[in-house]
């Protein structure tokens, strides 16, 4: 059983503070969508609204055909996995997993069978009679996962489920979460502040800021074609330079930055969003070149740092300071005059703000 | 590795124990003395002052009253204190901060003032029967203990556990009983014991609220002492001490004493 989740024009307040503004979101059946953002962006609020722990000021929440907006939390039938695992300390693993079924008055042989099956599926067969205090962090999270999955909910929600685990385990667990979610085909809402985590397991990611969704798309699109400066900055376009178009020559556009430097942008690789726009580039998107006659932004090199796959330089350009990478084979000294050659796959153009 | 303990530390420990236990030894000794007056060291040994307690009906009657009051007052304070502590822990952000202090007021107000004002308002003012006034008085007296001790338990309780129960289909009220209560059990028992002992030993509230025909054991002890200076006073004290020790022993057996210091 799986259903789509729809949030329509949700606005929410804590007291008089507005925390969500006119937020709409649709998650298709079986899809995993992440809400990604720093603390205070409204991602957890959104999850708590769907769970029923908070009530929106206005707007509607629907799961399949059911209207959840004013439904009490215990009637919503949503599997929830918490950051702190939130296992019942006084119950064994088996009773923790069976809790939801017990509330649904599913008893006897069926409960035993479903609980045992689920405990096996998350690989905790040998630990079924232990209490949560005697489990490791990873094992606890597996119990939490099993407890949420065993009720066979139409929607699964995860509230930063991996942030209390160490790095190695985080990767294993997120693969595990994705595997179980896909195997059941359950619709899922996943809240995290970790970009890699969100991008690696999600069908789509919503990047949030100040109670709004800044962009909702597949990880691939977010990574290569951010829609605005906030998202661009979030996905690593560290350099942003204001530009204006000075001539359109059919095949390409020539644009100028403050201070007068010009670059030529082939239309086959760039879509210019307007007369004025922002040129955004990752450090990898500006190749430091000492070759005479290279086409790009003139710059003077500053500090050089070693980042493993390349040298990174802080560079002074007419339009301001930027970070650019140069090959390991040719380290350059501070003060050298170079050209920064744009690499289209690591650059993008954003509408002026 | 040899661990040398500083002689001063040993001396300080011995002095502290003497200071704590010395008076108790004196009381126990005095209770066993085969004399008709209080004395230490005991002259001769007898248990007759213990049997004497049960021959004086005022003692047996007030003992019953004291136990009823301690159980009733503590229960009443739990019925008020647990929901109050829960609300203050759960809605810490939403509720005003001074609310926590309100529940500690009975400790901050001099007990004698509290006792007097209770007499003026409950007994003299609205004319409550003595037993009812005592019950309310004792509940109020021990409320700070129940709220603080249960509150301490709740402050370390992760409320997402309650939310997990709700998300799994358990209504809020039921979740409180089957998920929250079992996990703050230690705090409730600790609070109950503290409150019980406080109520059992109270003098300053009871002295204002007791009246004709109704008294508590400590008040009766005072009354008895004014008339007779015999070792019965000591034996009653030993008995009260014994109750406290027995309660602690039960706690130690079932939960371990360490949870009281948590």
UniProtKB/TrEMBL annotation, chain A:
UniProt-listed GO biological process terms: quaternary ammonium group transport
Annotated ABC transporter domain residues: 5-235
Keywords tagged on the record: ATP-binding, Nucleotide-binding, Transport
Record-level Gene Ontology MF annotations: ATP binding; ATP hydrolysis activity; transmembrane transporter activity
Stretches assigned to coiled coil: none
Highest taxon of source: Bacteria
Pfam families: ABC_tran, TOBE_2
SMART domains: AAA
GO CC list: ATP-binding cassette (ABC) transporter complex
UniProt cross-references to PANTHER family, sorted A to Z: SPERMIDINE/PUTRESCINE IMPORT ATP-BINDING PROTEIN POTA, SPERMIDINE_PUTRESCINE IMPORT ATP-BINDING PROTEIN POTA
Name this polypeptide is given: Putative spermidine/putrescine transport system ATP-binding protein
Organism per entry: Tropicimonas sediminicola
Automatic annotation (TrEMBL), chain B:
Residues passing through the membrane, by range: 7-32, 67-86, 98-116, 122-143, 175-197, 233-251
Keyword Cell membrane included in the entry's annotation: yes
Compartments in which it is found: Cell inner membrane; Cell membrane
Chief location: membrane
Gene3D superfamilies in the record: MetI-like
Keyword Coiled coil assigned: no
Membrane topology label: Multi-pass membrane protein
Keywords attached to this entry: Cell inner membrane, Cell membrane, Membrane, Transmembrane, Transmembrane helix, Transport
Pfam family, one: BPD_transp_1
Gene Ontology CC, one term: plasma membrane
A GO BP annotation: transmembrane transport
Domain annotation ABC transmembrane type-1: ranges: 63-251
Family note: Belongs to the binding-protein-dependent transport system permease family.
Name of this protein: Putative spermidine/putrescine transport system permease protein
